[in-house]
Amino acid sequence: MPMNGFFLEERPSLGLAGFRVAAAATVGLHVIPTFFQMRDNYLAGSFREYNPSFFPTWALEWADRSPDWLVWAMAGVFLVSWAAFLAGLFTRPAGVLLDLSCYYFYARNSLHIGTLSYDILLVTMFLLVITPYPGDCFSLDCLIRGEPEPWRRKRPFFIQRLLQIQLASTYFFTGLAKITAGGNWLVDNPYWYLMNGPALGIIKEFPGRGFLAAHPRLCWLIGAGVIICELNMAWLLFWRRTRPFAIALGFLFHVLLLATMHVPTIFFFLFPPMLLLFVEPETLLGWVEAGRRRRARLGRDRLVFDGACGFCRASLARILALDLSGRIEPVDFRSQDVSSLHPSLTPEACHARIQLLEAGGRLSSGFSVMRRLSLRLPLAWPLAPLLNLPGLRRVGDPVYDWVARHRFNLLHRFRACRDNACLGRSA
Question: How confident is the model at residue 426 (pLDDT cuts 50, 70, 90)?
């Protein structure tokens, strides 16, 4: 493959956007639990260790002198930026703040979060935040932009390629360390020693541990097999013919690792999603398109809106950005006879409220449409618990109706209606 095709081509960023969610979840699962013991982990008087091989001396000294109020403030910065990065709100600045706060707590105390896996996570986060487009899909930024079908948008592929190289290199050098460092797995049998280690050691109590502990030759063969897989994982992942096998092998490896050993959870929550970055973006897009065609054959829900209103068109674009499966079919009541779809769909009713006619025949209007969409669109499921709270309709209906009544006057300065076209067409 030519170098410009390996790095500089533009391809759909669907996989990278999904990986942002996985990376954010991994950061939260790894760091947030350490906040439950702030006094023991980070505040004045806590027992702390430092990693001078990772940080310069001045950074460690500055973090060590941090007063408690700054530690609490940085915890707040972490939580806010983490939630924003996870949701894809102001994705890039949120990611920068999240990365910086991760470095701060790592410098403050490497005892609780300072591991090789955490170093890998920080490098991964850095690669994500230097690009402006990890929030192209599955993000609030995408909804704010109102870009329908954002998964089709092509972006430079080099960041995803660098993440692929990072993972492949990690496997290779992990395997290399097993045959070059102390405790060489080929001339010794560390895996057998682990099987015979103390009950509270690095190995968990799992079915078959006793059998392995009694068979050193089998343990050596397992160790040699792990080395072979790790050393060859790079070319297995990058060669298309062996890529599906390598991805499946990687998933199996991390599941077994988590089931048999006390290892940092980052290995399980970060590496399998990184393996999925090797799935071709066009393949992911093909799966999406196949699902949308299947939905079209089964029948789609018709969303009846006011095509003469810019505010309504912008709202529709945000709904379509959530419709990955192609469940929604937009219908402009001004350009189609909607009464043929359902007797209740009159021009007056459609002018007053947005209408949702589901494939099964159920008709909803106004605020109830928002509630139904939150249940029917998987990307909107995070909103479902809030929108479907019992009794919320008492507030939701009047608020929706007020907005609908004033969309042609008070709201005509909305950015989607700056030409006042919707105001002019309301007559």
Answer: very low
